[in-house]
Amino acid sequence: MSTPQPQTHQQAAPAPNWQSAPGTSYTSPIPVTRTHLGHALTSEWTKIKSVRSTMWTLGVFLLLVVGIGLLVAAQTNDNDYADVPYTIPAFFGLILGQICLITLGVLVVSSEYGTGMIRTTFTASPQRHRVLTAKLLIFFVVAFVVSALAIGFVGLVTSGMHGGASDNEWGGTVLKGALYVSLLGVLALAVGSMLRHSAGAITAMLGLVLVPAILPAFLMMSESLRTVGDKMMDYNAPNALAKIFEIDSENGGGTSQLVLLIGVTAAAIAGAYVLLERRDV
Amino acid sequence: MIEVEGLTKRYGEKMAVNQLTFAVRPGIVTGFLGPNGAGKSTTMRMMLGLDRPTAGDVRIDGQHYDRLKDPLTYIGALLDAKAMHGGRSAFNHLLCLAQSNGIPRGRVHEVLDTVGLTAVAKKKAKGFSLGMGQRLGIAGALLGDPRILMFDEPVNGLDPEGIHWIRNLMKSLAAQGRTVFVSSHLMSEMALTADHLVVIGQGRLLADTSMADFIRENSRSYVRIRSPQRELLLDVLHRAGIVVVETGGGTLEVDGHRPEDIGELAAQHRIVLHELSPQQASLEEAFMQLTAESVEYHAHSGAPLGAAPPPLPGDRPGPPTPGPQVPGPQWGDDWKKG
């Protein structure tokens, strides 16, 4: 068998004494710590950075946002930025890149169910809500920082290439854009926690992002469904990003879309917490 | 100390665990025995707060599992060998567990050393053999140096060397005063490790007894004799009113008498004995005898499938009724007749 041979007989235990009084309880020399959210956070931080899927999804995300962003920046000229922020090249990459964050969000929790790791996790931390809270926080911070850096980098390079054309304030689009895509990832995490299945949760999330972008074209054919179609058109994820990056230079800047996503995400998180405590693992 | 009281788990119509009450005491290895599908793993998951009981209660040193502030220093559990993310290295797997309970990082190196995985600490767990995965799972259980250890089928799929290692590990853990609770469907394995036995079948408690008592109550003991003066011996025993059963190969078996008495009787008559040994039916037989009525998945030999409905627990299987619907030979019939 393939167990390493040199160590096989290492056993720190003292000579066994089968008859030693039953009833006496063992006391460990390891200091007993009352666990709290901080422990769960360091644990989840170790988890998220120690699997390759994190590096892959975030790597592809950066490649898409920065790569496509710089290509677009190179293809545009100074006049294009008269009315729009310098971060606009990042928008095109984000449309694809958001799928990476959705995938990572789902995997953060569903991979534990898929591998059985979740039983080990919940044995070590029976306070399940604490585990989910730590996952949500760690993932959100990672996703937000990475996407803000990517969008900000594209904005900086673009303003360097096409500087002076506009005095548009673009810092807000970095934060809002990063917030929107990270929240989509957080929503995916909550959905993953409820569905417990990687492929199922990713499919559900892709449906949630893509169907409202496609469906209005069909809904518009029917007079009675026109208002539903309009709303969908307005609030679907790609359009929300377009509004945040002020592509159509309308007012609002995607705030209402952001508020809707916050609401949906909060509801999904609430559902995830409720199901988490109720179900068997 | 683990106290299980009236523990019940129902999945729809099926009672997986039915009114289990027993206690697991510190300082000894308690074996948790039952055929496949008896509800061992379900019980263990409920003990760890992973599954919610339909009814009943589990207390760990008087507390509910999810009330434990430092669970890993209370209980270390090995549920199944592959309950880990295959993409994570052995070290990182243990590190994230340690961090979740505030256990110092140095302890990870210690347990890796204890289970002999130091050399592969940086390797991904998915490349591990079953034995190595089992060792990594045990390292996780030992991480918090807990006072209670639970192992679900720890020797499954291990080679003899690994089995030997786990056996000694469990015994030494119990000898240190820890509570060790280990499940198995192999009676022979338990015989070598457990001091106390909790036996279940179809979710019901069948026995909660010490190993020695279990053997005494559940197995036939007899004395085996071999002698070159067989005829003379038979005669002597017969005159003493001792019933002898002749088995093949020139051996005799005597029920219900101590070997000392038979030896002395033989000596009085100057009979040469080549063997005089107290025998006990194997534990495997005792276990099968106890659980035969609750075995869920029978392999019928010769009988058409579904011909004989499994006997209800508590029912004593009578002799096969003659008639058009004769059930095929039941599993375990052989020893029941004996």
From TrEMBL, chain A:
<keyword id="KW-0472">Membrane</keyword>
<keyword id="KW-1133">Transmembrane helix</keyword>
<feature type="compositionally biased region" description="Low complexity">
    <location>
        <begin position="1"/>
        <end position="16"/>
    </location>
</feature>
<keyword id="KW-0812">Transmembrane</keyword>
<feature type="region of interest" description="Disordered">
    <location>
        <begin position="1"/>
        <end position="24"/>
    </location>
</feature>
<feature type="transmembrane region" description="Helical">
    <location>
        <begin position="136"/>
        <end position="157"/>
    </location>
</feature>
<feature type="transmembrane region" description="Helical">
    <location>
        <begin position="177"/>
        <end position="195"/>
    </location>
</feature>
<feature type="transmembrane region" description="Helical">
    <location>
        <begin position="55"/>
        <end position="74"/>
    </location>
</feature>
<protein>
    <submittedName>
        <fullName>ABC transporter permease</fullName>
    </submittedName>
</protein>
<feature type="transmembrane region" description="Helical">
    <location>
        <begin position="202"/>
        <end position="221"/>
    </location>
</feature>
<feature type="transmembrane region" description="Helical">
    <location>
        <begin position="258"/>
        <end position="276"/>
    </location>
</feature>
<feature type="transmembrane region" description="Helical">
    <location>
        <begin position="86"/>
        <end position="109"/>
    </location>
</feature>
<dbReference type="Pfam" id="PF12730">
    <property type="entry name" value="ABC2_membrane_4"/>
</dbReference>
